[in-house]
Amino acid sequence: MSRLAWSTAGAAIGLSLIVTLAEAGPSKTQLLLSVIGVYIALLVVGSLSPRLDFYLPSARRGPVDQPWIALTFDDGPDPALTPALLKLLRRERIPAAFFCVGAAARRYPALITQAAADGHLIGNHSDRHGYGWTVAAPSQVLAEFAAANQTLAAILGAAPRFVRTPSGVSRPDLAEAFAQLQLTNVAWDVCGLELLYRNPARIAARIARLARNGSIILLHESYYGTRIVKPEQALTTAQLTIALLRERGFRFVRLDHLLKQPGFAASPIHASWLPEEGGAMAKARIDESTNHSASRS
């Protein structure tokens, strides 16, 4: 049973016991309202906290047997930052995952194409990065993420396999929508909280302190539709974060490689993204992983 199911069952049992056993009067009414209030609070907290897996499971961390981490960026593409960010990642030989907004991808398809050509993973980050879908009909929930899928598939030639909702919010029927679109929900283990901390050095130091083996790191290219975080701040944050994580001995792998999910190896993983091995050996390892995944599917 999901946490939603357990919470609903608990609330129903609590209400039934109060109705059956409590004596009529103000105290009984107060008890009923208290149980209902706690249940509603759980629904809200569960929607806002992806760590709870309240409505649907999410990938937040990979295997912990190696000092590897996955770097992910939300809210792009953004012409004010994405080209410089891609240049940084190319220079540092780091594969990342970009969770892209469908509307932005339609405006700047060349940036999506370039990120994919550089070997980065492209994920679905909703179509408009709004929150109306959280209270809309189920058909509108599906339409919001299907539209982004269609946009990215038209640009890349294949639909994305990973999704991250804006701010990680969820709702009861989101799991069904993602299953229909064949999307795996991804959250994070450590996030930059750029709006809260603002200073790139402070953000990078916090991420480096909290990162663990298998961590999925969340940073932002921008905050979609705003200039709250300036491009130069975001780029400096990424640079400092990479440097500090490397000082701690972490190595960067692409999200799908970290999660080791069957079928995802079909996405291109460049041999250059595996600097700990020689090019030929890395290529053989990639081919072996792809063949193994294909045999399991």
Characterize the structure shown.
The chain is an alpha/beta fold and 297 residues long. It has 3 domains: 46 residues, no CATH class; 188 residues, Glycoside hydrolase/deacetylase (TIM Barrel, Alpha-Beta Barrel); 35 residues. Helix content is 50%, strand content 10%. It contains 12 helices and 8 strands. Strands 1, 2, 3, 6, 7 and 8 form a 6-stranded parallel β-sheet that branches. The chain has a two-stranded parallel sheet with strand order 4-5. α7 links the parallel β4 and β5. 38% of the residues are buried. The C terminus is likely disordered.
Instruction: Give the uncertain stretches in residue-range form.
Output: 261-297
CATH domain fold name of the largest domain: TIM Barrel
Q: Mind telling me the C-alpha Rg?
A: 21 Å
Kindly, what is the distance between the CA atoms of the first and last residues, rounded to a whole number of angstroms? 27 Å
What would CATH call the class of the largest domain? Alpha Beta
CATH architecture term of the largest domain: Alpha-Beta Barrel
Anisotropy-based shape:
globular
